Amino acid sequence: MTETPTEAPFYNPLQDGYDADPYTHQSEMRELAPVQQTLVGPWALFRHRDVFELLRDPKLSVSDDSVAPENLETERYQKFEEMFADSDYESRQSMLSTDPPDHTRLRRLVSKAFTPRSIEQLRPSIQALVDEALDTMEAEGVTDVIEHLAFPLPFDVITEMLGMPEADQHKIRDWSEALVKTLDPIITDEEIEAAFHAGVNMNTHIEQVIEWKRSNPGDDLLTAMIEAEEDGDRLSSRELRDQVSLLFVAGHETTVNLIGTGLYELLRHPDQLALLADDPSLDANMVDELLRFVAPVQFSRRITTSDHTIDGQVITAGSFVLACLASANRDPELWGPTADELDITRDGAGQHVSFGSGAHYCLGASLAKLEAELAIGSFVRRFPTASIAGDPEWNGRINLRGLSKLPVEVAP
Ligand code: HEM
After folding, report:
1. How many Cα atoms within 13 Å fall on the side-chain side of residue 234?
2. Which atom belonging to ligand 1 lies closest to the Cα atom of 295?
3. Alpha-carbon gap, residue 249 to 173, rounded angstroms
4. Taking 90 as the threshold, does the pLDDT of residue 166 lie above it?
5. In the chain, at which end, N or C, are there fewer CB atoms within 10 A of the end residue's CB?
């Protein structure tokens, strides 16, 4: 009897249960439709080899200028157009959405502050912030990891690095949350509107901060960037604003997910937690394995600049392609039969693509790793018997997936 061919399934992050477990569905995509055009327009890649090649291919673009007009005719872009037409809000010029040669210039201007050696100097101040957070958690007994550790730590560290003034954390957190929603492949009209208003508010806030910093310079990254802008041809005012905004948002919206979801997974794998609590030499590998296992940024995006063939499928010039980092990180073709298991002693855990790859490889990778190493390592050694004390809440994002609440019970 001949089998009736079944149609390849489509990627659907709106299905029930996806927020708690996106991996089962992604694994199905990797097996049955690893290179596909999604129902909302962009192409999506799920295998490690395709993702890795795409991210490192210099022929691809990250700039919206490369998108073919017909690919901007979706509801999503029509709504963006409508919002932009009614305002003087300009599109962003951050290095994340800029191609060479501008990308190279913008990245070079800030990269010195993010080298492993510069970041290592922050160790004592990050440890002090972690210890203070753990003191508060210990005093509470039943407490929330996100509220006390996973969110404030990266937020305070990037605020301090940039030399930002004290500001209303809640307001900035709300804007930033609304803004990063635009990184999701599916977004509602209301979310687009909220992101637009948040973008306007964030721009105004950053512009005010830059003005304040001009008369209050310090030994910080923002002062160094302002000097580059005042030098004239190296950085325009708008570029300055957009790099500060990117560093600020990327500096905390991603690491919160690594620390929060990472600790959640360790608490759900008590054997791994016990191993780590007993052996600090595992800290660095633990961070790489958690990055592989939870992928705090689930997708990167590229735009084809010429017809591009992957696996016999032709992706025409000017198309969006989403590289599923989370799925690549669990591809058995690279990781073998234990791809879906958490193993903090895994050899080669650092081959994950959670920080991307190629020219746009995460500038903050060393910083994020150090924050996670100190936060998670210190937490498990101070509270080796910690346990989950209620239902965790997911943040509802498809791309920057993480927890907005993780109740735990801690005792020294
Ligand atoms: C666990 C935490 C983090 C993860 C998972 C992460 C992930 C990523 C990924 C996947 C990219 C590449 C996007 C692409 O290929 O299109 C990226 C780029 C970037 N990240 Fe991170 N990131 C993290 C933390 C940070 C931190 C702490 C900072 C800064 C303070 C930062 C700053 C940046 C910047 C500036 C870029 C753009 C680089 C470029 O375009 O050349 N990230 N990040």
Report:
1. 13
2. 5
3. 9
4. no
5. N
For the chain, the residue count is 412
Domain boundaries, the chain: 23-409
- 308 contact partners, CB below 8 Å, separation of at least 6: 59, 60, 314, 315, 317, 319, 321
154/286 Cα distance (integer angstroms): 19
**3-state DSSP of 272-290:** HHHHHHHCHHHHHHHHHHH
- In angstroms, the CA 5 to CA 389 distance is 47
Largest CA-CA distance found in the chain, in angstroms, rounded: 80
Cα–Cα dist 223/173, whole Å: 23
User: Quick one: tokens of 241?
Assistant: 């604003």
Which residue matches tokens 């790099």?
Answer: 243
- CA nearest 211: which of 234, 178, 252, 244? 244
More confident residue, 4 or 275: 275
Task: Give, for ligand 1, the residue of 355, 366, 397 to mutate: max count of ligand atoms closer than 8 Å to Cβ.
Answer: 355
Quick: pLDDT tens for 366-410: 999 999 999 999 999 999 999 999 999 999 999 999 999 999 999
Q: Residue 250 Cα, ligand 1 centroid: separation in angstroms?
A: 6
What letter represents residue 307's amino acid? D
Q: Does domain 23-409 have CATH number 1.10.630.10?
A: yes
Task: Find the mean pLDDT for residues 14-25.
Answer: 96
Could you identify the atom of ligand 1 that is nearest to the CA of residue 158?
A: 30
What pLDDT is attached to residue 1?
A: 43
Distance from C-alpha of 229 to C-alpha of 235, rounded to nearest angstrom: 5
> Among residues 65, 63, 10, 68, which one has the least CA distance to residue 40?
10
The per-residue pLDDT for 2 is 45
Give the residues across from 37 on adjacent strands. 43
* DSSP-assigned letters across all residues of 74-110: SHHHHHHHHHHHTS-PPPP--GGG--TTHHHHHHHHH
Residues with Cβ within 6 A of ligand 1? 55, 62, 95-96, 107, 158, 246-247, 250-251, 254-255, 258, 296-297, 300, 354-356, 360, 362-364, 367-368
Between CA 302 and CA 53 the distance in angstroms is 12
DSSP-derived 3-state class of residue 408 = strand
